[in-house]
Design a protein that fits this description.
Among the domains are: about 110 residues, no CATH class; about 80 residues. The chain has a four-stranded mixed β-sheet with strand order 7-3-10-9, with helices on one face. The protein is mostly helical and about 1050 residues long. One of its GO terms (biological process) is proteasome-mediated ubiquitin-dependent protein catabolic process.
Length: about 1050
């Protein structure tokens, strides 16, 4: 038909087609009609102009006709790869969007990277783009960033450069520019952190300074990410913290956040730099001095003994050497006359420095404050413990030991031993190792004490002495001494002296296993994390004696001594190698298990640095060594929630042939996820229903550890449902674990929440058919519910977010009570007071400092105390009446009635013969009057009953808020409802502090007299329940009546 046309004419026709509108119908149906086949036909032409025209039209209407275009994607993709095709970027954009609709996101991203200007990430989401185009761009950006992060992570972990497409890097850079333009600083920081771009972290922080207040918020956000350990790489996290410190120090003094700076320095383990910051604050004004006190309290709460000891050393040594430094400067100036004159450094007030160091020291103010609060605010229910004690069988030593341990937890930290003195005979029934545990429980009650003299005084009757008949009580006393002084900076010094005394007692004890067990544990607790080589040699010598009991204690002591000190090189690395070799040589399972746990303790907080050791332990043929590998994972990654560690534990939980290893794997999920507790219930939901009882037990403990005190949270409610189902498990030790875990979740909850559970455990204790292990769990649940006089909770991190090593260690070692009951007392290391205590500049408690809780009082009230038993009056039993006696009494009664009737007749005859007298004279009352009086009485009683009913109906409604006085209890779930009135006289020196813990206050009217209460240290017996002596009075015999 076109055979007569010349080639030139045909080319003109093609150009006309390009210039015609899309809906002209020249090449078939319009894309706005029913098909895009006409445009797809143009793609098969050889003329680039026709192909470009088709691609332009397809790009415009692709969201409507992508299903038809999908068949031609290979051709379009071929055009995008043709270097001679000028519109290959457009072809890549069309193919990418087509793959996007096909949900082939990897191919879509690959082609989007070659789309050039057609893939615009810098434009605003609402600018001239359809909703479908916005969705495509946002999805591709997300996919690009995810792929970029993955490649950067692989590069950082492998140490070799990754092949990252330059076009992908360009898109990420354009994305950063878009965030800068939109002031989306948090999004930019999130991408920089996940991609491990330290240069971008610094750049985002510098750029944010251009917006008022943005940099301060971004610094807080970045620190929160690092503290929450959302960055799984420890090395990169430490680098980011270093950048934060640099930014803080470069800020002007008026806006510089010293609290965040010191927090970063503590996370970086730089005590010298922290000491310099504290000293600079002490040289400032009163507000800065009080802020230094506040920071000292925050650091002391972390229980990070090596850091605190180094901090104290830097604070003291530099001040002591100050005079020497000044003398040297004078000599230098004299020797160099041309030296420039320098201003002398402003001295620190010695009173301020002494007060600051007193807060940080083991025997310092922090201990006194904790004792004052726990003793004064204690609501321990002694009658409840008496009821539990009386419900048990007298000959069951296991339940007796559990009750003693529960007593220790109920009175933990209160220094109140009144129950012990009142029931000394009952406590004295313990024998052998039960006596060891009972004596050690006194350390829980008196933890912590400041000075050795105080702790020795309360344990005087049990500590080792010549000619003592019971080495078990002596060993338990040493263990108690270690619990009292555990993880307290300065316990090694002459001031505390606890460690020196323990070493002396351990040496004098010889080969007595109870003394070795208690002494080694105590040495490890006092020297926790110090890595003292001399102490290691002492404990190693006891370990190599190959005594099962003494060797176990020595291994645990070594683990505590090397806490978090595992390194690739140095003497600690050689020590771990030596310990693991001995674990393979010895035949004692107790020693092997303790050594495996020691390896885990040494790896605490090391994260990926411990992967080599974890791999070695996890591949061992001995199940006990693999058991230690699970705790090594939990301790190395505690609180990080690292996905790699979680996956490994879950894999072992369902694959290992040893029940002990599987139980340990599930239990350690609680240590990993305690910062993200709501993740745990869905993670262990199936494991809680496993056929294996050991896995179910581990799931119960994991829920209790991670969700302690969080019964009102969504995760806590889900956990309680799972634990309640396990209360009726067919296996007794699963019931035991579920009861203990439930009590942890329900810690510091009101009566409305805990009452059903309390009734259940009381019923279990009283039932005779309940197994011993179930009863043990119920008894321990009582101790956990009312721990510390109902004023403490199980906390694995400080309020500032620092993971407390002593608390994590306490939980890990408490879980070993499966094999050794005395290790139950280790959980006391994890108990933390839930207090709000305000302190003025003199560290006294202002009575006028208050806080407001914007919730009903019943939501956070203490549970009701057990009422005392009422004395029942003994009623006399009625005497049995015989039939003959009844007949005789009936005859006698009939005779009396007959005589009365005769007397009545005579009286009536006499009355008829005498005149009537008036009612007033006779004093008689008519029956009508009597009835009226009775009716009146009935009406009065009815009115009284009606008024009582009305009163009950119109009961005063519960207030919606209430006031908290200083000091007071503030539970973790209560914090969100507590506010501090900034208009009152005393306000926090740190305006961003939480309404809990120790809050240093600044006085807005310092010239007015203060009403304060001093921090009083309770007496050693801790018994203030005795009534005060009455006022003087004169006695007379009439008082007897």
């Amino acid at each position: 038909k076109f055979s007569g046309l010349r080639p030139r004419r045909f080319s003109q026709l093609r150009m006309m087609a390009v210039q015609q509108p899309v809906d002209s119908g020249l090449f078939g149906s319009s894309p706005q009609g029913s098909s895009a086949q006409g445009l797809l036909a143009l793609l098969e032409e050889q003329e680039p102009l026709l192909q470009a025209h088709a691609l332009k039209q397809l790009y415009q209407f692709l969201d409507h006709y992508w299903a038809e275009v999908a068949s031609s994607v290979p051709l379009i993709e071929e055009l995008s790869e043709d270097p001679n095709f000028q519109h290959r970027e457009l072809a890549a954009a069309v193919a990418s969007r087509c793959f996007f609709h096909l949900e082939e996101y990897n191919d879509a991203l690959r082609l989007a990277l070659g789309a050039g200007q057609f893939f615009d990430v810098s434009a605003q989401s609402g600018s001239k783009r359809t909703a479908a185009e916005n969705q495509y761009v946002e999805t591709m950006i997300s996919k690009c960033i995810d792929e970029y992060i993955r490649l950067r992570t692989e590069e950082a972990e492998s140490g070799t450069p990754a092949a990252i497409d330059d076009r992908m890097v360009a898109i990420v850079e354009r994305m950063f520019d878009r965030c800068y333009a939109d002031c989306a600083w948090s999004q930019a920081m999130g991408v920089a952190l996940e991609a491990r771009r330290l240069d971008k972290v610094r750049e985002v922080l510098d750029r944010s300074a251009s917006q008022n207040g943005a940099q301060a918020k971004l610094l807080d956000f970045t620190l929160e990410v690092c503290v929450g350990q959302l960055l799984y790489s420890r090395d990169f996290r430490l680098q980011v913290l270093g950048v934060l410190v640099e930014i803080h120090r470069a800020m002007a003094e008026g806006i510089r956040d010293h609290a965040a700076e010191v927090h970063c320095l503590q996370l970086l383990d730089k005590p010298e730099a922290a000491a310099e910051t504290l000293k600079a604050l002490l040289k400032g004004n009163e507000r800065q001095t009080l802020l230094a006190y506040q920071l000292a309290f925050d650091m002391a709460e972390s229980d990070h003994q090596p850091f605190l000891m180094a901090l104290l050393s830097h604070l003291s040594t530099k001040e002591e050497s100050k005079e020497e430094t000044e003398n040297e400067e004078v000599e230098d100036v004299a020797a160099t006359p041309m030296a420039e004159a320098t201003e002398p450094e402003e001295p620190i007030d010695p009173v301020k420095l002494e007060r600051l160091m007193g807060i940080l020291q083991a025997a310092g103010f922090m201990v006194d404050l904790q004792l004052n609060f726990l003793h004064g605010q204690s609501k321990a229910d002694s009658l409840l413990l008496v009821a539990v004690k009386d419900s048990l069988e007298q000959r069951n030593s296991t339940l007796h030991q559990a009750t003693v341990a529960a007593h220790g937890f109920m009175f933990a930290g209160t220094a109140n031993t009144s129950f012990v003195r009142e029931h000394m005979d009952w406590f004295g029934r313990s024998a052998n190792w039960a006596k060891f545990s009972a004596t050690a429980s006194l350390g829980v009650v008196h933890r912590p004490k400041g000075l050795l003299a105080q702790s020795k005084q309360v344990l005087e009757a049990y500590l080792p002495r010549p000619g003592s008949p019971s080495p078990y009580s002596e060993g338990g006393a040493l263990y108690a001494l270690g619990l009292i002084h555990a993880a307290k900076a300065g316990s090694r010094t002459a001031e505390g002296g606890a460690l020196a005394y323990l070493l002396e007692a351990l040496t004098a004890g010889g080969s007595l296993e109870p003394l070795q067990q208690g002494g080694c544990l105590a040495v490890g607790l006092c020297a926790m994390g110090t890595a003292d080589k001399h102490l290691y040699e002492v404990l190693k010598n006891i370990l190599f004696n190959d005594s099962a009991i003494g060797g176990e204690g020595a291994a645990y002591g070594i683990g505590l001594l090397l806490l978090g000190q595992a390194k690739a090189t140095g003497w600690t690395a050689e020590a771990l190698t030596e310990l693991l070799a001995y674990a393979h040589d010895t035949q004692h399972e107790k020693i092997i298990r303790a050594l495996a746990m020691a390896a885990g303790l040494a790896s605490y907080g090391k994260e990926e640095e411990a992967d080599t050791l974890i791999e070695t332990l996890a591949r061992d043929r001995d199940a006990i060594i693999r058991y230690g590998a699970m705790y090594t994972i939990g301790l190395a990654y505690a609180g990080t929630g690292a996905n790699t560690a979680v996956r490994r534990l879950l894999h072992v939980a369902v694959s290992d042939v040893s029940d002990d290893v599987r139980r340990a794997a599930v239990t350690n999920l609680g240590l990993l996820l305690f910062r993200e507790p709501d993740r745990l219930p869905p993670l262990v939901a199936l494991l809680a229903e496993s056929y294996n009882p050991h896995v179910r037990y581990g799931a119960a403990l994991a829920l209790g550890i991670a969700l302690a005190g969080r019964a009102q949270s969504p995760g806590g409610k889900a956990a309680l449902e799972m634990l309640e189902a396990m209360h009726d498990d067919v296996v007794d030790f699963v019931r035991q674990g579920s009861l203990m875990a439930s009590s942890m979740v329900l810690m510091q909850q009101p009566d409305s929440v805990t009452k059903p559970f309390r009734e259940k455990i009381i019923k279990i204790i009283r039932e005779k058919h309940s197994s011993t292990m179930t009863k043990l769990g119920a008894i321990m649940a009582h101790g956990f519910l009312d721990a510390g006089g109902r004023n403490v909770t199980l906390a694995l991190s400080s309020r500032s977010g620092f993971t407390k090593a002593s608390a994590v260690v306490g939980v890990a070692l408490w879980a070993q009570h499966w094999y050794w009951y005395p290790l139950q007392h280790m959980l006391s290391l994890s108990l933390s007071p839930t207090a709000l205590i305000g302190l003025n500049k003199d560290l006294n408690m202002p009575n006028k400092f208050t806080a407001t809780c914007n919730a009903r009082p019943s939501l956070f009230a203490y549970p009701a105390m057990t009422p005392p038993k009422s004395e029942e009056k003994k009623e006399r039993v009625a005497t049995v009446a015989l039939s003959t006696t009844a007949k005789a009494k009936a005859k006698e009664k009939a005779k009396e009635n007959k005589e009365k009737a005769e007397e009545k007749e005579k009286a009536e005859e006499t009355k008829a013969s005498t005149p009537e007298t008036s009612e007033q004279e006779s004093g008689d009352v008519k029956m009508e009057d009597v009835k009226e009086e009775e009716a009146g009485t009935d009406d009065a009683s009815n009115e009284a009953k009606a008024s009582d009913a009305a009163k009950s109906k119109t009961k005063k409604p519960e207030p919606l808020r209430f006031e908290l006085t200083n000091p007071c209890r503030v539970t973790p779930e209560q914090e969100q409802f507590v506010t501090l009135d900034l208009d009152q006289r005393y306000v926090p020196v740190n305006p961003r502090c939480r309404p809990a813990g120790i809050v240093v206050l600044i006085d807005k009217t310092p010239d007015e007299p203060e009403d304060v209460a001093e921090v009083e240290i309770p007496t050693n017996d801790g018994d203030d329940d005795e009534a005060d002596a009455p006022e003087p009075f004169e006695w007379s015999p009439d008082m007897q009546t």
